[in-house]
Amino acid sequence: MILKLLVTRRFAPLFWSQFFSAFNENLVRNMLAMIILFKVGAERAGPLVTLALAAFIAPSLVLSGLGGQLADGHDKARVARWLKLAEVGVQVVAALGYWFDSIVALYAALLLLGLIATLYTPIKYGILPDHLRRDELTAGNALVEGAGFVAILLGLAAGGLTGLEGIPKELVVAELVVVALLCLVSTWYIPGAPSKVPDLRIDRNLFGSTFSLIGDLRRDPRMWVGALGSGWFWLSGSVALVLVPVIVKQQIGAGVEVETAISLFFAVGVGVGALLAGWLCQGRIVLKHAPWSVAAMGLFLLDAGWTTATAADATERVSLSAFLHSGTGLRLVIDLVGLACAGGLFSVPVFSAVQSWAAPERRARVVAGVGVLNAVMMIVGASVTALFQTPWLAVPNPVLLLALGVVNVGAAVYFGRNLPDAAAAAAAYIPVEAAARPGE
């Protein structure tokens, strides 16, 4: 099924569009992080790197409602093309920021990319049930999530490499432009998905329309718990990716190559977990293993926190080879890959369930509501983490990892008690018609 989906027009253009989008967002974000980590100074790096994450997800708090309404009220493919055309212009801002080492310009580009991502997310997830059959939906989500994290992996690597000496600036600028053009071209081939409610009016109250989406989710207990599950995955992953690079830089003495490798290991783990979830589900929506996956996330976080808390402070810069051959480095890599893999196993079936429970005429707004909740939870996680990192509190980063692990164990108990079982999920499934799929 996976190979078949990758060569059909009803899925392949969307697959590549979101792949290049994810690559681009993480290229710019890690480019900014490298400039902060190695040019601003270690004492200010933690809060500024955390702020970069907040800048990217902040537009979700304002524009998710608009994104859901645009996707439900218009042809999703057409809206996607206009968004990716605008993204080409944003890349110019990012290129200028990199060329002149301007943190302000890179923050601006990241904020604009977050805006585009907010409007694009309801389209890319809302259009999947329009073009995929019921038995293809979990596999499609697994591919989108898995490929998305491979793109994150590559984007983080490319962004990390921009921090190395000797990399021509012209090459990086060309990369930014080419990626934006590839994203635009692939989006242009997404098959049309006409609106089922073409007379849907856009609510001019952006804040009201955005946060009303959360109220809509809360009216359905299954949808609410599933949305909380999606948000919990993003909160845990984003906070871990904020803490670990700072830890390996400040405490272990890692250089750019280790920072990049850490991000790559995490992205590989999520991709493997997502694809493994698609394989295990075999066209069904299976939620029995989801709470155990969250418990595993907690255990890996606890071990990562303990490993870094008990590690001796480095007295010299550590190379990638030395890091991977050290007990601390190898154990931390195993913990990160395990955390990411467990996260993928949890997020894919939970989000597929939410998609399946949503009525077709409201599906994009449901996806947008999940996006709002994801953003709120990530912002809360990032803000609390940044608060504890400030000089006034100065809580050690390994202790914050330990705390995140403890909270994940508690979250596993919550989801174990509140997520519906597989039979309930299957009974609640809303069938998706298989008619009118171009490019089969």
Automatic annotation (TrEMBL):
Its main location: membrane. SUPFAM superfamilies: MFS general substrate transporter. The chain crosses the membrane at residues 48-70, 106-127, 139-159, 171-191, 224-248, 260-280, 292-312, 332-354, 366-388, 394-415. It is found in: Cell membrane. InterPro entries: MFS, MFS_trans_sf. GO terms for molecular function: transmembrane transporter activity. Pfam families: MFS_1 (PF07690). GO terms for cellular component: plasma membrane. Keywords: Cell membrane, Membrane, Transmembrane, Transmembrane helix, Transport. It is a multi-pass membrane protein. This is MFS transporter. It comes from Lichenibacterium minor.
